[in-house]
């Protein structure tokens, strides 16, 4: 497995993205969309785990207009810093950055076949929006903050999509999962999973919210979803 940083072209100039490639190439692609903490050790670790499963993964640095390759931890002060950076993102430019990363990913010789988006928290919401844009063949959204305000986008989604939510998420009410189920009713595209007894961020092994059982179950479901593309 190889891992390195690449540059992605955009109208505003080049920006960086972390790439992890599988031991045997080419493989299907994943655009991995960061949380508010940047393309930090956890996101890089997630990229490497999926690369070990045979996927070529690109994780674009979405905060580059504020600060390049930002690496934020999980203290209260760092959380506030991440929220501030997320608040400065321009939605249209962020969508264009993700689209540019997907375009580069599809051009890599290590990538062949379907490309899916996978995101956590802020990235989960952006994965949902990326699915609505039509740029990917599938999308996975972990506890996507803000999705509840964008349920109308479900009507634009034509690819399979998978949602993971903690049943005790302190930021995302149960009504969001229920709303997504209703929004996709009658369309065999979406699977919405609730994980009992866990809260926001349950997939991140660097956070106190980490729950091994829920993270393993969600990862297994995600790999099954990806393998069906």
Question: Which short descriptors sum up this protein?
Answer:
229 residues; alpha/beta; Rossmann fold; 34% helix
Q: How would you sum up the global shape?
A: globular
Query: Which regions have little confidence, pLDDT < 50, spanning 5+ residues?
Result: none
CATH-defined architecture: 3-Layer(aba) Sandwich
Widest sheet: strand ordering: 1-2-4-3-5-6-7-8
Classify the oligomer: single chain
What's the SSE pattern?
A: EEEHEHHEHEEHEH
- Helical residue percent band: 25-40%
Provide the domain count: 1
**Which CATH class is shown?**
Alpha Beta
Please state the average pLDDT score: 97
State the total count of DSSP E strands. 8
Give a description of the structure.
By secondary structure, this protein is α/β, with parallel strands linked by helices. The chain has helices spanning 41-52, 76-87, 91-107, 122-133, 174-183, 212-227, and strands at 2-8, 15-21, 27-33, 56-60, 111-120, 138-142, 161-166, 190-195. It has a single domain (2-227), classed as Rossmann fold (3-Layer(aba) Sandwich). Strands 1-2-4-3-5-6-7-8 form an eight-stranded mixed sheet, sandwiched between helices. The mean pLDDT is 97.
SSE topology sketch:
Blueprint lengths: L1 E7 L6 E7 L5 E7 L7 H12 L3 E5 L15 H12 L3 H17 L3 E10 L1 H12 L4 E5 L18 E6 L7 H10 L6 E6 L16 H16 L2
Parallel strand pairs: 3-4, 3-5, 5-6, 6-7, 7-8
Antiparallel strand pairs: 1-2, 2-4
In short:
The chain is an alpha/beta fold and 229 residues long.
């Amino acid at each position: 497995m190889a891992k390195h940083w690449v540059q992605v072209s955009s109208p505003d100039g080049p920006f960086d993205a972390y790439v992890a490639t599988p031991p045997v190439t080419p493989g299907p692609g994943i655009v991995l969309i960061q949380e508010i903490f940047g393309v930090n050790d956890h996101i890089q670790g997630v990229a490497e785990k999926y690369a070990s499963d045979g996927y070529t993964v690109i994780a674009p640095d979405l905060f580059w207009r504020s600060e390049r390759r930002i690496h934020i931890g999980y203290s209260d002060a760092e959380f506030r810093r991440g929220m501030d950076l997320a608040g400065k993102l321009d939605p249209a430019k962020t969508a264009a950055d993700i689209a540019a990363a997907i375009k580069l990913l599809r051009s890599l010789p290590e990538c062949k076949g379907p490309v899916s988006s996978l995101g956590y928290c802020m990235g989960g919401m952006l994965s949902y929006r990326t699915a609505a844009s039509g740029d990917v063949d599938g999308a996975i959204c972990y506890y996507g903050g803000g999705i509840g305000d964008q349920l109308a986008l479900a009507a634009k989604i034509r690819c399979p999509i998978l949602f993971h939510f903690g049943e005790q998420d302190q930021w995302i009410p149960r009504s969001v999962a229920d709303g997504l189920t209703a929004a996709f009713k009658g369309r065999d595209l979406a699977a919405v999973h609730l994980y009992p007894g866990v809260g926001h961020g349950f997939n991140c092994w660097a956070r106190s919210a980490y729950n091994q059982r829920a993270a393993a179950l969600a990862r297994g479901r995600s790999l099954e979803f990806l393998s069906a593309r």
